[in-house]
Specification:
Layout (H helix, E strand, L loop, with lengths): L66 H5 L5 H9 L12 H25 L8 H15 L3 H4 L4 H20 L72 H6 L20
């Protein structure tokens, strides 16, 4: 299902690393784990970051113990902060911007994630009764992304998220109501390692479900609500996610799939899928 065309003022909702000052490699912390080979504090550049803001091991991240980097996606927040909020001034050449830039980046990412969800909701014909309210929410969120750093730093994203989530829940109900299968409710369920191969999950509520290492091979997830579902190491071989609700690139990146896994046209097949 094609997305609603973006207006000229709508920020890009996919990462454009060439126009970002490697904010995810500096602003965010990570802990030594299966996802990261070392600890890194927030505001500290990763040891693999080069002077040109490129990753020195980009093509070897998984081999070098940094699969978490390959999963992350900023929804376009990085280039928005780098090129719009700070007008192309990078934190190396303008160190006085660094503290505020790193503070604003996680806020912008949340705003862009909300824009991603709203844009998808607007692309769903079944949600037509909600489109006026969704367009208003889109305008409010877009306006927030264009604010200056001083306005963004104290911005209450949680309150905005709560308002928009009400619309997304209603969107989910309208879209899933049209699914032909029995609507399974697995919201927030612990489905880690679950054997769901070939399952008919059309119209299922999988919001916030833990699907870590679950076997979803050949599962039909069309019109399933996947917002916040944890797909780390989930097996999506031959699964059908073409019309899944609120599926994001980070969720796909965290999963295991194959060339025959069906995904929405707005998302990209992860390079580690074989």
């Amino acid at each position: 299902m094609p997305p609603t065309p973006a207006s000229p003022s709508t920020p890009a909702l996919h990462a454009d690393c060439a126009n970002c000052f490697a904010l995810c490699c500096v602003a965010l912390p990570f802990a030594k784990s299966n996802d990261f080979a070392m600890n890194k504090a927030a505001g500290t550049p990763c040891k693999n970051l080069q002077q040109d803001f490129r990753c020195g091991i980009h093509t070897q991240l998984r081999d070098k113990g940094f699969p978490g980097c390959t999963v992350f996606d900023c929804f376009g927040a990085g280039q928005q902060v780098s090129q719009v909020t700070f007008g192309g001034r990078d934190w190396r050449s303008h160190p006085e911007t660094s503290r505020q830039m790193f503070e604003v980046f996680p806020i912008m990412r949340q705003l862009h994630e909300l824009l991603f969800y709203i844009t998808e909701a607007l692309a769903r014909p079944a949600a037509a009764p909600l489109h006026p309210a969704l367009r208003a929410a889109l305008a409010t969120t877009e306006e927030a992304t264009r604010a200056d750093a001083a306005t963004l730093a104290p911005f209450d994203v949680g309150a905005l998220r709560q308002e928009i989530n009400t619309l997304l829940l209603k969107t989910s109900e309208l879209v899933r109501a049209k699914a032909p299968a029995r609507k399974k409710n697995h919201r927030g369920a612990d489905l880690m390692g679950a054997r769901l191969s070939g399952a008919d999950l059309r119209g299922a509520n999988l919001r916030g479900a833990y699907l870590i290492a679950a076997d979803l091979s050949r599962a039909d997830l069309r019109t399933a609500d996947l917002i916040g579902a944890d797909f780390r190491d989930a097996n999506l071989a031959d699964a059908d996610l073409r019309e899944a609700l609120f599926l994001t690139q980070p969720q796909l990146n965290a999963a295991q799939g194959t060339p025959t896994t069906k995904i929405p046209p707005t998302l990209t097949r992860p390079t580690h899928w074989t």
